[in-house]
Every structure is written in C-alpha cells, then in structure tokens.
Amino acid sequence: KQEVTQIPAALSVPEGENLVLNCSFTDSAIYNLQWFRQDPGKGLTSLLLIQSSQREQTSGRLNASLDKSSGRSTLYIAASQPGDSATYLCAVKSRGSTLGRLYFGRGTQLTVWP
Amino acid sequence: GAGVSQTPSNKVTEKGKYVELRCDPISGHTALYWYRQSLGQGPEFLIYFQGTGAADDSGLPNDRFFAVRPEGSVSTLKIQRTERGDSAVYLCASSFSGSVTDTQYFGPGTRLTVL
Fold it and tell me: For residues A39 and A86, is the Cβ–Cβ distance under 8 A?
C-alpha cells in the first residue's frame, strides 16, 4: 500500500522567506504527484501536478520537483507572503491502484507572519 | 462555471442515525470521488465513480457506508447507524474523464459530527 509522508508537520516563517516543503512516498510506481493547498473550512485547490516522466513544474512563485526513483518531491515557495498561510497537501496517483485513487500525506501547516 | 458543491456544509447527528451527504460535480465531469478527512489527517479515499458505476469502492470502511450516482451526475454518500468515529469532513471531487493525467477538483466538504 502506498504511504505518503510530509515533513515538517508545521512551519512558521516571517514574510519574504523562501521555504521548502517535503513529501516522500513508499512506492515509486506512480502516474503523477500533485500538490494541493487547503484553507480552513474550504476544499482543496490544486497547485501543481507533476507527471511521472517530468522532473519539475513551476507556477508563479511555486516550484515542485519530483525524484521518482527516490520517492521524493519538494515544493519550493519563493518570497513567502501571509496569504500563503494554509495547509499544503501532497498526493500521489499509484500505478498499483485504480486511476481515481489519490494517496495523501497529512499535510504541512504553513503560517507566514508579516 | 460553478465548482464542485456539497450539501449540507455541516451535519450534526446522533449516534445510530442515518445520514445522506450530497455532491454536485462540475458539469460534464464523468468521474466523481469521495474522500474522508479526519482531524489532523490527510484525505482518505472512499469510492470512485466513472459515470453511474462505482469503479473502485475499496476505500469504504464497512457496509454501513454506501454511495450512489444514479444518473452519472449528482452523487449521494449514505451512512447507516452512524458512530462517533464517523465524525470527519467528507470531501467530494470530480474530474473530466478519470484519466491518468486528470486533475481532481474538490468541493468544500461536509463536516459530519456524530454525538
């Protein structure tokens, strides 16, 4: 069974810092990996999706990398802002499961203070 | 266009009662997913529909949980004889076709509290 782990569980930084969130997964046979953002009381918003054949994806201040062989992904947030405060979730779509099933980590709760 | 909507947003019930949670997917999306998120945890997969049929229901925890999607659009998650351990946020998502490259779009969730 695929297991996804995210480190750290919580992170608190001052505005303007560059930061890295980590995600690891136990089974490297994946179709893709996705990073989501979750705000309190709201659903998940997809930030970046990296296919298994790709090494990284970028969107604005966000950059996600994927090292499938080692079972790791990182989400890099540049010049953090208070509006970035949220929980960030990593999810993988495994080859050993049906196409619909995503396996999620527990998330990293990020607080960016002014 | 509208995103995924879920009703009710909050549901409080007593142990042993029956509840129904509704999900309206994005129009035109053939794939629909239910997840459950307990406090401090990531979402856990429950069931996945492709059209009207359940393509994978292996995440349903026991036979008290059942979900339907009779017309291939709206879905209802049904929980019988609720237990306190069923308290969680139930998330619904939809995607265009359920393919490998699809992005799943999530609704705001229904917070279920079983007293």
Answer: yes
Instruction: For residue B26, give the DSSP letter.
Output: P
The token pair that represents A44 in the structure block = 């998940």
- The one-letter amino acid code at B22 reads R
Q: Most B CBs within 10 Å: which of A59, A98, A106, A109, as the mutation test of the B interface? A: A98
Q: What is the DSSP string of chain A?
A: ---EEEE-SEEEEETT--EEEEEEES---EEEEEEEEE-TTS-EEEEEEEETT-SEEEETTEEEEEETTTTEEEEEE-S--GGG-EEEEEEEEETTS-TT--EE---EEEEEE-
Residues of A within 8 A of B103 (CB-CB) are: 34, 46, 49
User: pLDDT tens across A45-87, in order?
Assistant: 999 999 999 999 999 999 999 999 999 999 999 999 999 999 9
CA distance A6 to chain B (A): 10
**Minimal Cα–Cα distance from B20 to chain A, Å?**
19
Nearest CA to CA, how far is B50 from chain A (Å)? 9
pLDDT in tens, B39-58: 989 999 999 999 999 989 99
